[in-house]
TrEMBL record:
Keyword Metal-binding found: no
Gene3D superfamilies linked to this entry: MFS general substrate transporter like domains, Multidrug resistance protein D
This protein's record includes keyword Transferase: no
Sequence ranges assigned to domain Major facilitator superfamily (MFS) profile in this UniProt record: 15-455
Family from the record: Belongs to the major facilitator superfamily. EmrB family.
InterPro entries referenced in this protein's UniProt entry, alphabetically: EmrB-like (IPR004638), MFS (IPR011701), MFS_dom (IPR020846), MFS_trans_sf (IPR036259)
Record-given protein name: MFS transporter
Keywords, in A-Z order: Cell membrane, Membrane, Transmembrane, Transmembrane helix, Transport
Record's bilayer topology term: Multi-pass membrane protein
Location in the cell: Cell membrane
Residue spans crossing the bilayer: 53-74, 81-107, 113-131, 143-162, 168-191, 203-221, 227-250, 271-294, 306-327, 334-353, 359-381, 430-452
PROSITE patterns linked: MFS
Superkingdom of this protein's organism: Bacteria
Amino acid sequence: MLRSHNSSARSSRLALLATSLGFVIVCLDVTVVNVALARIRDSLAINSTALEWVVNAYTLAFASLLLSAGALADRFGARRVFIAGLAVFTCASATCGLSGATAALIASRVLQGVGAALCVPSSLALLGAAFPEPHARAKAVSIWAGTAALALGAGPLVGGVLVDRFGWPAIFLINLPIGIAGIWLTVAHAPDTVRRAGRRIDLPGQTLAVISLAALTYAVVESGRRGWTSATVTAGLAVAVVTGALFVVVEARHPQPLLPLTLFRNAAMNVSAITGLSLNFGYYGLMFAMSLFFQNARHDTPLETGLAFLPMTAVVTVANVVSGTLTARFGYRLPMAFGQALAAVGYLALVFVQADSNALAVALPLLAVGVGVALAVPSINTAVLTHVGPSSIGIASGVLNTARQIGGVVGVGVFGSLVRPELNDLAEGLHVAAMLAVVVTLSSLLTVLLGLRTSGSLVTDGAG
């Protein structure tokens, strides 16, 4: 009996390792590519618009498929879907690293996004199956989330080292051994989940969501090259609006919708989604813009760029822990509001940064942004878990993550249109982008102050 218990505990720990490895490479790819942008541009001789697609192709596929991926995990089993996602991601990473042309790299980034979308919801479901006891499950989820935070924080530095030593393909090829190890551990040790054979896939809703998000991304990315008033950009925005409206109509009538609209009757859900979108808009947009600024205006190497990002990324894990402590004591409203206020101060300080500014003048604003965003992110997840019923937590988490990824896509597109290497004054474009981040962040802060009527105490608020 003791041997059986020890074997079960070991398998659970190895299942946690497998899901964490999958989550690590998914999150690492969100930030690691930014420090390689200049080298990719020079190697493939591509323009700024194509460079934005190298970043956004991944995030777009990830964002638009997250909700359906959760439904697939319910229908076919989380273990099978996680293995498939990790296999797709690993193979796509290989083709990214071996790409000798822009189209091939962007297509491979799309496939990476597909694999990432399959991995994330199913990895959380696998943890639930591997750790049925609530206390052990909470600890496992904390470790799983912590590895993601570390991956996001380490991304720029890891990318800088790899690009400097081995060239830009290395940032993708490093995923191969990690992905293979994750697949082997999952096959050997991860339990499967109960399959819901009757769960239907909302194909019309998924199709409209992909078209709407793709059209929006296309319009935002192309605006930098063509201008907001061009026929191409206007048409893209029109397609995004029309298909977005059709998506709402379809979801309202579908018996098993991709996105249950009843979720948005919940104020905490709405505020959390808006906050998540705003946070990623500024954070991902800033990482893209600052990477170009460091390497083109300040002429930093990829490694120096990764080191320059350390004040913003190294504090993520510590600030996440502080956010949890603040939430437990004061409720989620305080860290959500304070985090955004601090991030807004950081963005505002970037308005005064020039190409010849000293390291401290650059590091302090980035530190404020990093701490602010890291304080706010856990609180939006807590708000959703507190106010959404147990049967809807999965889909609510998918909605929140989708909103965050959309914010990242739009942020990279908008910031990229303002900070383009062919511009004579990159600092001026960075200043406009930073002010835009201030406006978006303060607007989101206002929704927190007006939309959440209580402090968000976990003791007094309940799950209604």
